[in-house]
Amino acid sequence: MTSCLYECEIMHRRLKPEQKRFDYRIFMLSVDLDEPPKVPFLGLNRFNLFALNDRDHIDLGQPGGIRANLFAWMKQENIDCPADARVRLVTLPRVLGYAFKPVSFYYLSTKEGIPLFSIAEVRNTYHEMKLFLVDGEKEKGWQRRVKKDFYVSPFSDVEDSFHFKLGLPADNWAVNIDNLDSEGVTLVSAIRGKTKPLTGRRLLWYGFKYPLLSLKVIFMIHWQALKLWTRKVPHFAKSAKKESQTDVLRPHSSLTSTDD
After folding, report:
1. How many domains, the chain?
2. In the prediction, which pLDDT does 237 show?
3. What was the pLDDT predicted at 224?
């Protein structure tokens, strides 16, 4: 499958401490990192209407871009992967130079196309990043429950868990990410995407259909957080439980500061 677009419906449903749901529509890039697409209105490490930029993803200082740094991370984590594995990245694009990417997904397969595993790349509003291996096989994708140990939302404890269910990218693409505390699921997030051809004409149309895409996503997240805060829903400070925020890339000063 060559690089393409996914037009997506996003759903977030909070189950406790109070119930709340919101939905919105976006589109995401699905890019073969071994054969980056070259189409009008999509910049590769340069400004354009939409762009894919190495700086927005895993960076351990390894030359060679996203793929090389992802493999460096896997080596660091003792994850066995063939050197000639294919890598597909599904992510939000930059929009007019601005980037906000709450989660991106790497799908790794053999050169013959046999799926190996997935990696979820989660970012927070402090520009921190953490990668999660998702390798528990299911019928049409991968799933795994794993401790977060990462600050994502002030309304979810860093010691909660993620349950990833990542469908394989095909004509239709489905992702579920649940947040769980010790008593069960607290937040359900879902992505449902339909493939569209990656062409300059479609990107230009999406520039009108989804204007300021990244700003829309970050506004929705902060707007929902503000509504929870005004209802006095219990929340967690970023600087609390520093010791529980582990394997964080690009750590914020709240983690690196020695001040009490």
Report:
1. 1
2. 77
3. 62
Query: What was the pLDDT predicted at 223?
Result: 60
Among residues 93, 106, 112, the alpha carbon closest in space to that of 142 is found at: 106
* Nearest C-alpha neighbor of 26 from the set 173, 149, 133: 173
Distance from C-alpha of 7 to C-alpha of 196, rounded to nearest angstrom: 7
Q: pTM for the complete prediction? A: 0.92
Maximum Cα interatomic distance, the chain, rounded to a whole number of Å: 54
Per DSSP, helices labelled H in the chain are: 65-76, 200-209, 213-230, 253-256
pLDDT at 141: 87
C-beta neighbour count of 52 within 10 angstroms = 25
CB contact set of 207 (below 8 Å; sequence gap of 6+): 41, 49, 50
**Counting every residue, how long is the chain?**
260
pLDDT-flagged residues of the chain (< 50): none
Q: Are 91 and 105 in contact (CB under 8 A)?
A: yes
Domain containing 219: what range? Answer: 4-256
C-beta of residue 38 within 8 angstroms of C-beta of residue 203: no
Element (H, E) at 239: none
Return the structure tokens found at 112: 């013959």
The pLDDT score that the predictor gives to residue 247 is 95
Distance in angstroms (rounded) separating the CA atoms of residues 88 and 75: 18
pLDDT of residue 154: 80
Of 256, 189, 253, the residue nearest 221 (C-alpha): 189
Which three-class secondary structure state does DSSP give residue 80?
Answer: coil
Give me the pLDDT at residue 98, please: 87
